[in-house]
Write a structure and sequence with these properties.
heterodimer; A: mainly alpha; B: 62% helix
């Protein structure tokens, strides 16, 4: 497994072909329109985005809790606030992100197993397994919370959808056979930082929505995620600094 | 090279495993840009072979089995080649590479094309793809904050060509005069190769265009995909329609041999060179197989069609040639099958263009005031502030 930063024949960048790059810039200077006002150049793009923005429909909707079965759960009855669907949407997002988090740790563990003990790392398979298991637990808590308010944990809410779009690149980095462990930890840090901030928001939202009963479990999830973030950050820092030293 | 000098690998020995097909990709950062150019070109040639065979099979009975057998190998060749593109290429970066193929390979073909009219057709198309590169480079810079030259590696200029907004024509102005039976072998192979590359580009844009969220990108892909359809119309119109299907099939196999031979001659990555050599041998096997069918069904000797010697396509920067063509031919327009001054453009194309651009021109909008600079246009702003 390749796990080192190395010098080599990277062919990108102007310094690899300074004469060509210089000829290209000179030609661009004489054959391209002059940029009189940088803001004007962006204006057309901004206007088009605005046009479509005004006409756009939503990514989707939040499924209406309980209406299909007619059942009203205790949790649902206690829902407060003008828009309880906001809580359902964000719970759906957390459920989806934690479920993907389980798969991210699986991919990271596969990468570690493939290294077959060759690498000297500041973490072990047990460490990754521990994070993996907690992500799974959080996923289950989110599903249970959704059920308690009569929502369908198998549905994909709009925020679940967009958070998956936002984090889509993380798995690409983890499963690329060419990436190093440090590159993967860097990607995982993105996930863990998002996780931490998202649980903080979800705790506030649960309370705001009259679901104080969910808060203790969610606070435990937040403690886990803070620990994950801290550890991933420490591992990454150790690996990068050790390699540079 | 003479196409009939070597028998190649017999069809029954052309086997693959999934591990072979899904091998190690090239490096976006370290491999030569022309390695990627060759990968994209030959994936396009294989996909075009599959396309021709599928369409042909709808009109054939006796040839269905040999076509299906060869098509299966071509499917796996196309897979092995296309899967050489590494996953860190964003769809827009791959788009830049596709346009580099369209510019550099078409420019090489235009220079070695012996027929003046055909060479003019290639130069005409070349300046349109050249403009697409400029528009997509602006999109890459302004949407993803990336420098297109990290893909182009200093080989291809990024300036406007024939404006994409002006490339929209009535279909009658996209047709070209087909070559006759007496055309040189290399002319026939050029037309197949460039048609395959453009077809692949069209299909790629049609598939990835809707994967973008930004309406600016969605519009630009919609617009340029439409021009690529015009280009496929233009280049495929060059093929002599009087040829039998078997003759066209034979020439397509010859095109693939020629493509792999040219790739193997210039490849800098030894592992990839091995693939080109292996597939050149596979294609020679296909060629001889089809030559046997031509003999069997049409009582014709393939040597009548394939005996000319061929020199390999030059895979290198054609900057000076492209600049000359840009300077002298950017204002050409098409009227019917001929190339004319703007004043002689057909009313049908002018009407069509006015209609399709009525709500604005995506390619104009994205490149408003765009001037490429190493390190992206934000680098220019940074330098201005520093000054």
């Amino acid at each position: 497994m390749h796990n080192q930063t190395s010098l080599g024949m990277n062919r990108t960048g102007a310094q690899m072909s300074p004469l060509d790059a210089s000829r290209m810039e000179d030609f661009a200077e004489s054959h391209s329109p002059e940029l009189e006002d940088e803001m004007m150049a962006h204006e057309g793009i901004a206007n088009l985005r605005a046009d479509y923005g005004h006409e756009a429909e939503a990514v989707g909707t939040v499924p209406i809790p309980g209406t299909l079965t007619g059942a009203v759960t205790t949790g649902m009855a206690k829902l407060t606030g003008k828009k309880p669907e906001v809580l359902v949407d964000k719970l759906g997002e957390r459920l989806a992100f934690e479920r993907t988090g389980v798969r991210l740790y699986e991919a990271l563990m596969d990468k570690l197993a493939a290294a077959d003990g060759e690498l000297k790392l500041p973490f072990s398979m047990d460490d990754l397994q521990h994070h993996h298991d907690e992500e799974l637990e959080h996923m289950e808590w989110c599903a249970a919370a959704l059920e308690s308010i009569g929502a369908d944990p198998s549905a994909q809410t709009p925020c679940a959808d967009t958070v998956a779009v936002a984090s889509g690149g993380i798995m690409q980095v983890l499963t690329d056979p060419r990436t190093t462990m440090a590159q993967c930890l860097n990607a995982m840090l993105t996930a863990e930082l998002t996780d931490t901030a998202s649980w903080e928001l979800l705790i506030d939202l649960a309370r705001e929505s009259g679901q104080d009963n969910l808060a203790p479990q969610f606070e435990e999830a937040l403690r886990h995620e803070k620990e994950h973030t801290q550890r991933v950050r420490k591992w990454l820092s150790r690996m990068v600094l050790d390699e540079a030293a | 090279m003479n196409l009939l000098d070597h028998k190649g690998v017999p069809l029954e020995k052309q086997t693959f495993t999934w591990k072979e097909m899904v091998g190690k990709p090239i490096s976006k950062l370290d491999d030569e840009a022309f390695t990627r150019v060759r990968v994209i070109l030959m994936a396009g040639a294989e996909l075009d072979a599959i396309r021709l065979s599928r369409v042909g099979a709808r009109f054939q009975t006796d040839l269905r089995l040999p076509m299906a057998e060869i098509r299966r190998v071509e499917q796996h060749q196309a897979t092995l080649i296309n899967w050489l593109l590494s996953a860190d290429h964003s769809p827009l970066e791959t788009t830049i590479a596709y346009e580099q193929v369209a510019i550099e390979v078409t420019a090489a073909v235009a220079q070695q094309e012996p027929d003046d009219y055909l060479a003019q057709v290639y130069r005409f198309g070349l300046l349109e793809d050249f403009d697409h590169l400029y528009r997509y480079s602006a999109l890459l810079d302004r949407l993803e904050g990336k420098d297109a030259n990290n893909i182009l590696q200093g080989h291809t200029d990024i300036v406007p060509g024939r404006p994409t907004a002006d490339e929209h024509r009535h279909p009658k102005d996209d047709l070209r005069d087909p070559m006759g039976a007496d055309a040189a072998l290399v002319s026939k192979l050029h037309a197949n190769l460039i048609t395959g590359a453009e077809f692949q580009t069209h299909d790629y844009y049609m598939n990835i265009g809707p994967t973008f969220a930004d309406p600016v990108a969605r519009q630009l892909y919609a617009e340029i995909a439409s021009i690529e359809e015009q280009h496929v119309t233009q280049y495929s119109a060059l093929v002599d329609p009087q040829q039998s299907f078997l003759e066209q099939w034979l020439l397509h196999e010859a095109t693939e041999v020629y493509g792999y031979y040219s790739c193997a001659e210039s490849e800098s990555n030894p592992r990839i060179k091995g693939i080109w050599e292996r597939f050149c041998d596979y294609e020679l096997g296909h060629l001889h197989h089809v030559a046997g069918l031509l003999q069997q069904y049409e009582k014709r000797d393939a040597a009548e069609l394939l005996s000319e010697a061929l020199t390999p396509i030059a895979f290198r920067s054609q900057r000076d040639f492209v600049r000359r063509v840009l300077d002298s031919e950017v204002n050409l327009r098409a009227n019917g099958t001929q190339f004319v001054d703007p004043a002689q453009e057909s009313q049908a194309s002018l009407d069509y263009r006015r209609l399709i651009n009525a709500d604005g021109s995506p390619s104009t909008q994205i490149a408003e005031g765009y001037r490429w600079m190493s390190g992206t246009e934000l680098n220019r702003q940074h330098l201005r502030r520093a000054a």
